[in-house]
Amino acid sequence: MQLSLFTYLSLSVAGFAAAHSWIECTDHDKAGALKKMEDQAKTDPKGLTPFDPTVHPELCKAWPRAKENPGDWAVEGRTIAWNIDAAVFLKDRSACSPPQREFKPQGPNTPLATAKPGGSIVLRFGGNGHSRGNGTGENGLHGDPGTVEVFWAGKKETEIKTIDELTDKTSIAKAGFSDESFALPADPNVKDPPGLQDKGNWMTVKMPANMEPGRHMLVWLWSFRNKPQWSSCFDVMIS
Ligand SMILES: [Cu+2]
Questions:
Q1: 14 CA → ligand 1 middle, Å
Q2: Side-chain half-sphere of 213: how many Cα atoms within 13 Å?
Q3: Which contiguous run of DSSP H or E holds residue 6?
Q4: Ligand 1 geometric centre to CA of 76 (Å)
Q5: Could you tell me the distance, in angstroms and rounded to a whole number, from the CA of residue 123 to the centre of ligand 1?
Q6: Which residues contact 121 (CB under 8 A, 6 or more apart)?
């Protein structure tokens, strides 16, 4: 089972349909990152030496489960990122990757996000070359970059365990994958890497006003080709 999942993931990541993304930060300084990215775009409009938020951990104030600071992007893509489509193929309906399936206290270098009820957090994930539809269509061709959605079980210290719990009832926020994306170059006809650089993608999520103080588990889901594809799991401490 492990071997076949690994094989499936390897094929999926190595193949031309390798659309993948995961949450790398749960409280990101989007304004600070945009300033750096826009400054860089002025001197390099083709985006040949793009600003990459993954090498600026100082812009991140809170972290998802099992994330190291700063962490290894290539390793995280195989461990933290959860390939729901591949798992479903193998009859595994887990909502989270193995290292994100339970809450473990996070150290001072990777604290949880904090918010007030009704307040917002800014999630950051990599567009990873897919913000203009590269690899998100049928058979790995160009398509709609899809949607991102966040789910909450409705109570503190309560886990969402399976994808069957990712429903309209548990959804607290939904947006387009590229709604808050900063991609270079500005020319929308450039749809593919290496010409397209899109490491700066965000999703601003408003916490439900009825969240009680305490730790709340949330699931982020990226869907394209009209089905769930990738998820990340994290916690928010409500004050
Ligand atoms: Cu990808």
A1: 10
A2: 1
A3: helix 2-14
A4: 12
A5: 18
A6: 26, 27, 62, 113, 115, 204, 205, 207, 236
Q: Which helix (H) or strand (E) holds 23?
A: strand 23-25
Distances (CA, A) of 200 to 88, 127, 147, 163: 29, 7, 16, 27
Of the pLDDT bands very low, low, confident and very high (cuts 50, 70, 90), residue 50 is low
Cut 0.70: pTM above it:
yes
Calculate ∠ Cα 213-104-237, nearest 5°.
20
Distance between CA atoms of 219 and 233, rounded to whole angstroms? Answer: 5
Confidence at 7, pLDDT banded by 50, 70, 90: very low
DSSP symbol at 122: E
Of 25, 207, 208, 41, which is closest to residue 126 (Cα–Cα)? 25
Q: Ligand 1 centre and the CA of 192: distance in Å?
A: 11
- How far is the centre of ligand 1, averaged over its atoms, from the C-alpha of 196 (Å)? 13
> Which residues have their alpha-adjacent CB atom under 5 A from ion ligand 1?
18-20, 128
- Contact between 43 and 34 (Cβ < 8 Å): no
Closest CA to 90 of 172, 8, 176: 8
User: What pLDDT does residue 16 have?
Assistant: 39
Listed by start position, the domains of the chain span 2-238
Query: Do the strands 120-125 and 23-25 form a parallel or antiparallel pair, or are they unpaired?
Result: antiparallel
φ/ψ bin of 10: left (φ > 0), alpha (ψ from -120 to 50), beta (otherwise): alpha
Count Cβ atoms below 10 Å from residue 120 Cβ, excluding itself. 12
- 3 state SS of 1: coil
